[in-house]
Amino acid sequence: MSESLDSLSESTGSGIWLPDPATLGIEEWVLTAVLWLKLGVEAMGALIIGIGVLVAIYQFIRALFSSGIRDYNPIRLTLARYLALALEFQVGADILSTAVAPSWDQIGKLGAIVVIRTALNYFLMREMQEEHSGRSLT
Fold first, then answer.
1. How many Cβ atoms sit within 10 Å of the Cβ of residue 38?
2. 69 vs 57: CA distance, rounded Å
3. Which residues are CB-contacts of 31 (< 8 A; sequence separation ≥ 6)?
4. Which residues, 6+ apart, have CB-to-CB distance to 101 below 8 Å?
5. 69 burial via Cβ count (<10 Å: 0-12, 13-18, 19+)
6. Measured between alpha carbons, how far is residue 133 from residues 116, 124, 128, 137 in Å?
7. What is the pLDDT tens value at each position of the chain, 138 positions in all?
8. Chain centre to alpha carbon of residue 114
9. CA pair distance 66, 73, nearest whole angstrom
10. 62 burial class (0-12, 13-18, 19+ CB within 10 angstroms)?
């Protein structure tokens, strides 16, 4: 019995023997949990984009049928807010992917995606701030 435990364990350097996580299946369980979490975060980002599109369409239709000046900037900025929030979720999912990425090639690709999404988010936020400060000055 003790021989089988010895073959399943490694020394921590303090004289205490702990089972190897790979042998117990813990690493596989953690990998599966991270992948499910990544999928959930990506789905949440997609859901936020969908809700933003529906809200923007609703506002656009209301603007089409209302009389007066047709300023579509508030509608555009509403959609931009949803997109910025969704991009944050997508970047979070990308970060989860790097935690379980098996190769440097995948890590490089994910890094490029994160940079692109972060840049998009930065410019969306900047445009929203400029529009907000421009509206408050007038």
1. 18
2. 18
3. 100
4. 107, 110
5. exposed
6. 26, 14, 9, 6
7. 444 444 444 444 556 777 777 677 888 888 888 999 999 999 999 999 999 999 999 999 988 888 776 788 889 889 988 998 998 898 888 888 877 766 788 788 888 888 888 888 888 888 888 877 776 555
8. 9
9. 15
10. exposed
Amino acid at 107: I
CA distance 24 to 8: 8
CA distance 31 to 89: 19
Q: CA-to-CA distance for 53 and 132, rounded, in angstroms?
A: 21
d(CA 6, CA 18): 9
